[in-house]
Amino acid sequence: MMQLDVFQVIADPMRRQILASLQQGELQVNDVVKVLEIHQSGVSRHLRILLESGFVQMRADGQRRLYSLRAQPFQDLDTWLSAFRELWEARLDRFERALQQKQQAKKKNPKKTELS
Amino acid sequence: MTTTSKSPVVFDRTYDAPIEDVWELWTTKDGFESWWGPEGFRVEVHEINPTVGGTLFYDMIACGAVQVAHMKAANMPLSHETRGTFTLVEPLKRLAIRHLIDFIPGIDAYENFMRVEFSQSAKGTRMLLSIDAHSTEEWTKAATQGMTSQLTKLPAALEARRK
């Protein structure tokens, strides 16, 4: 199976709902099915994807299989988005400086700017 | 690769400038060259045609010492051609640009989308920029190799990949 990247994993609304439901703690597949009112096969399939992509972990407790969230991918996502944001904020600061220079140039030499 | 997910990151800025000036920074050669590109990079625009389907074609050139060193270390040329297309153009109101990212060694080409909305506000011109933060093949690779922290240390490289 093709490995999904983090954004593809969370792009699916059903998977986001499953992740949200796991915020309350460990759940079995049946618990998730009850909360979300979707068919078990769908929940199992999405849980498998979440498991493979590291968003979710599973532990066996006797007959029960309990699923819970893993922090790592959320932290990775947060790190990446923060870096991405910072870079763009800096770029938009440069946008602002470029605008200011443009206006100063206009004031100094209105005719030339009008022609350009 | 096919881009199926959309994870836009949104920036909301208001500039104390007329909307025409803000628009020109996106749609003219001089304007675009005056700010585009990550820190330590400059651009030289070959073609900028702000009509629907119009071309945006420029060289992205590393000029900062750190960035030059990084590009060399990553075995990437200091200058690379970058191509985009204007996919939406409503003068002084909104525009959208699709960039083709095909210059990262070892990464299949992918597309990156951004959309900008302009409006007049009491304080000047409001610019709402949303960027599709998907296109993370390289990020995924790095993350699986446990190199996530490296990415934050190399913001210039990261940013170059955004383009």
Give structural notes.
The complex is a heterodimer of chains A (116) and B (163). Chain A has 116 residues and is mainly alpha-helical. Chain A has helices at residues 6-11, 13-21, 29-36, 40-52, 72-108, 110-115; strands spanning 56-61, 64-69. Chain A contains six helices and two strands; from the N terminus they run ααααββαα. In chain A, helix 3 packs across helix 4 (40-52). In chain B, 28% of the residues lie in helices and 40% in strands. Mean pLDDT of chain B is 79; it is low at 1-5 and 136-163. In chain B, strand 5 (94-101) and strand 6 (110-121) form a beta hairpin. Chain B is an alpha+beta fold and 163 residues long. The A-B interface holds A 3, 5-8, 10-11, 76, 79-92, 94-103, 116 and B 4-7, 9, 11, 13, 15, 17, 21-22, 24-25, 30-31, 34-39, 129, 131, 133-134, 136-137, 139-140, 143-144, 148-149, 151-152, 155, 158-159, 162.
- C-alpha termini separation of chain B: 16 Å
Total number of beta strands of chain A: 2
In this structure, how is the largest beta sheet of chain B organized? Answer: 7 strands, antiparallel
Helix-strand category of chain A: mainly alpha
In DSSP terms (H or I, runs of 4 or more residues), the helix count of chain A works out at 6
Shape of chain B: globular
N-to-C CA distance of chain A: 56 Å
The helix content of chain B, as a percent range, equals 25-40%
Mean pLDDT of chain A: 85
The low-confidence parts of chain B are 1-5, 136-163
